[in-house]
Every structure is written in structure tokens, then in C-alpha cells.
């Protein structure tokens, strides 16, 4: 007796703490995971008012007999309770038998179930069994939860808006569908169908069911393994992005989990391919021995920790980077299917698809306006191309046919270079292209610690406000490591006598000031990040601007240099450098082809 009271108190505490059923999503999660445990091949989730009024989950699983169907709602549901060890085992869905009584205690429940032999109907109100009847029911389980939180009015206010509740549920069901492509998921709200997956086991088909055909057509399969991990799944072409990270689904042994380090590794590998604050579509499954995973046992979050995380991160990073580097990633100006591309209107929910294809976080708008003297020569003459390393790289790059030969025919708005070849017409953003070229050159010079330096004829005097000078003083070593030769000169002033050769020749002083700015502003002196920041800043400031005049030979040179870059498709801010109208697109536009 006392034991029961302790458990009930525990349950009451759990509800009070809002750990189990604080959101309608958690109720859906519990019911859906029960259906998966019951080996269902179809799971139908029907909501009324985002589940606040009613949640009904119907499956065709193994069902329950009469005894289990009552026990399922009791805290002593031994048949449903898993061993504590199971909670740590990533293969188990965990928490079965714990949340069901909690859900029942704050709602009205109607359970109809059949194991194929006996059909049982159980009704509960506020956690108390009201009736148990036999009935003619087909195999499987149907649970209807109505008036959630009816007896705890205070809790209702914790429910977010109906829209947010529905968005959470949709996100969750989408991710379950991605974890279980062999189960058919149907989700409706107020009779409107939000999701209906094929359940045929094909992950790409499920991606298409969830995100639409356009997204599915722009996904690339990846697969790789090392001693401890096997990864597989799909990543999107960089042109396809979303404004939040819900487009990234992480699975471990086919189970949805969260892990920030892995998301970071994925974003790192897409770095400079996509704009800041945009996210690729990724569905990544990691197969691993459960012993290498530590699951944070919280019923609503699936935070995981890995042993050998670094091995996993480099496996993911290398695999994605490799994939991105081997594909031609020129976005087509005319989407394959125009109707589908504006909005993928998925029966009531408009998914962000192509409307953001060309929407970029415009950090760059200012630099487009700002007119700094810039020359295409910067690209031509600024780098020591005699080193052996560069020669080798050039040879490698010449073979690279990701951007085919193309010939400039002119320039539009002083900004967009029009090119052609037998495949079609291409438009190159002259600033974005030059910026990519310069970025990679600066980055290469910085990360290989290129020590070629040059004397300046008249030493540069740089004076700083005293607060900035104090910070710079602490980081003189950074300037020295970059190859600057300088000395302190009076108050808050340094005098520079030698600088690295990779500095832009036409505006070295401006470049030095930029570098000092970055040193002074940056708190974090991770070398790689610093090099990148310097490279992006200099590339942006020192590259030909939109509106700057450019000659045909310079255009040809620009295209040639762009072809040699590691990632010719985006500028370091993630904007596209080049877009394509295929010959067929043009023929279609002029109705020469249908
Ligand atoms: Zn720029
Ligand atoms: Zn840019």
C-alpha cells in the first residue's frame, strides 16, 4: 500500500514538473512510440485543434489482450515497463509504461484494442478506469485522448498556441516517418491531411512525402564508415536551404536524437556553400554500437553523447565535404517544375521550398554599395604562383570539369557577366566570383603560413584608440606570425616596415587596417576561424565590385580562375557565383520546345 502511494506521489510530481506531458506533442510521441513497439505498419494520427481537443492514434500492430489493456494505464504495468538498463539502450524507445498513466490522469481516454483474438474497449476518466467491455475490433490498437488537461486548468496555459503545438507535432511525426520509412504515417488535423507517407521503406520517397518532390529531387545520397561508425542518408544541394535547423534530422540506429556537435559538423561542411543562418536539408542515420552512446534519460529530449565523438565528426565532415566538392552545383534559373517550386503546398501546410532558393542573408548589401578601388589584376598578379604546390594544384584543377568552358559575351548592369557554351547560358556575379577566387587564395596563403614578405617603401604608421591598442598589444604575436615586421612608435601607434606578399598591392594599408580590426574585435583566437575571417573580409573588400567596369579579357580570366577554385559555386558568404539557363530552358521559354 505504501509503495503505491510513493509511486503516485512520484507520478504527481512528474506531472507537476511537466516532465512527461507538458505538450500535446509528448502525448502524440508516447502513443506513436507505443504503436511502433506494437510493430504497426500503418499509424494514423488524427488531431482535433492541434490535439488539445482530441488526439486519436490508430495502428494495425499486435494489439493487447484484455488484461494488458487495463494494466497499460496502471503504474504497475509490468508488462509494459522496461528495465532501467533499457533506457540507456538506444535501440529501445524507452519510457513505455511510464507516460501512459500520466496522460490518462489528465484526460479522458478511450482504448480499443485487439490482439486478433479478443477485442477490448476501455474507458478512463482522469486516470480512473470507468468501464472495460469486450467488443468486435480488428487487430491493432486505437487510443483516443480527449480534453487533455481538462482537470488541471492551470496546465492549459502552458500549452503554447495551437499553431505551435501543431508545428511541434508535425515536426515530430515527420522525423518519426524518416526514422521508420517502412511504416506508413498519416497525420491529420481537423480532418485536413498533413502527412501521408508511402511506408514502402524508401527513405527518399519519405523525404519526398514530407518535404515535397522538389526537395527530394535535390538530395544527394551519402554513405561512409570507419571502425566504429557507419553513416548514411541524404544531404541537399546547397541551393536548397531552410531558415531553421528543423530541416536536419539525426538518427542513431534509426532513432531520432539531438546532438549539437553533429549538427555543427554538418553545418561546418556546408560552410561557405550556404549563407549564414540558413540550413541544409539533411537526413543522417548513424549506425553504432549502443555502448558508444550515452543517452540523456529525459523523456522529451533525446540528447545523446558519444564516445569517440571526434572520429564521428570527422567522418561526417569529410563525407559531406567530399560529396559537395564532386558535384556540379550550379543552380538552374528555371526550376524543373515551376508549379512545385514556388510553394510546396502540402495540403494546408506551406513548406518553405523554393521561395528561399535565392534568398540570402544580405550581410553583403553594404559592400556592394561601397566603392573601393578594385582591380581584376588583384587576382592576376597578387599571388606567388611559382611555388610547386600551386602548380600541382593547378594541374589537378584543370581536370576539374565541374564548370565547363564558357565564353563571356558581355555584362549586364555592370555586374552580371553573361556567358555561353553549348550547354546553355550562364550568368556570373562578378563580385561574388572574384570574391570566391580571392577568398581561397588568401585562405590558402594564411593557412599554409606563407612567409614571403616584402619591404614597404615608406613605412605605414597606424594609430589606434588606446582601448584598441591595448588589445592589439596583447596579440602582437598574431601580426608577427602573419609576417608583419613592425615596431611600437610613440603612444598607441605602430609602424610597419614589412608585410606579407599576399596583401593586396593596390590597397595594402586598408587591408592591414582590416586585419587589425579583426584582431581587436575578435575575442576568440581560433586560428582557423581567424584565417577565415581575414580571408573573407579581405576578399570582399578587395574584389571587383558590382558596377565596376570589366573588359572581356578580364572576364575570361575571371572565369578561368573561378574554375580553378575548390568551390566555384558560391562566394564565401554562401551567395551563388553562377546560375544557369540550360539550352533547353531557353528553348522552353521561347516555346521552341515544350
Ligand atoms: Zn562581398
Ligand atoms: Zn560574398
Describe the structure.
The chain is an alpha+beta fold and 594 residues long. The protein folds into 3 domains: 9-159, Heat Shock Protein 90, CATH 3.30.565; 203-349, Ribosomal Protein S5, domain 2, CATH 3.30.230.10; 376-581, Ribosomal Protein S8, Chain: A, domain 1, CATH 3.30.1370.100. The chain is 37% helix and 24% strand. The chain is built from 22 helices and 26 strands. The strands form 7 sheets. Strands 5-4-3-6-2-1-7-8 form an 8-stranded mixed β-sheet. A hairpin with a 3-residue loop joins strand 9 and strand 10. Helix 2 (24-37) packs parallel to helix 7 (162-179) and helix 16 (430-447) packs antiparallel against helix 20. The longest helix is centred in the N-terminal third of the chain and has 18 residues, at 162-179. It is elongated and about 95 Å long. The model is unreliable at 1-7, 77-97 and 337-400 (pLDDT under 50). The site of one zinc ion has 5 residues, from helix 16.
Q: Can you tag this structure with a few keywords?
A:
disordered N terminus, elongated, Ribosomal Protein S5, domain 2, alpha+beta, 8-stranded mixed sheet, 594 residues, Heat Shock Protein 90, 5-stranded mixed sheet, single chain, 3 domains
Tell me the CATH topology of the largest domain: Ribosomal Protein S8, Chain: A, domain 1
Order of strands across the widest beta sheet? 5-4-3-6-2-1-7-8
Structural class: alpha+beta
- N-end to C-end Cα span: 79 Å
Global morphology: elongated
Largest sheet: 8 strands, mixed
Radius of gyration: 30 Å
Residue fraction in strands: 15-25%
**SS element count, helices:** 22
Low-confidence stretches: 1-7, 77-97, 337-400
Please tell me the overall pLDDT: 79
CATH architecture of the largest domain: 2-Layer Sandwich
**What is the CATH level 1 assignment of the largest domain?**
Alpha Beta
The distinct bound ligands, ions and cofactors come out as: zinc ion
CATH superfamily of the largest domain: MutL, C-terminal domain, regulatory subdomain
Total domain modules? 3
**What is the number of strand segments?**
26
Helix content: 25-40%
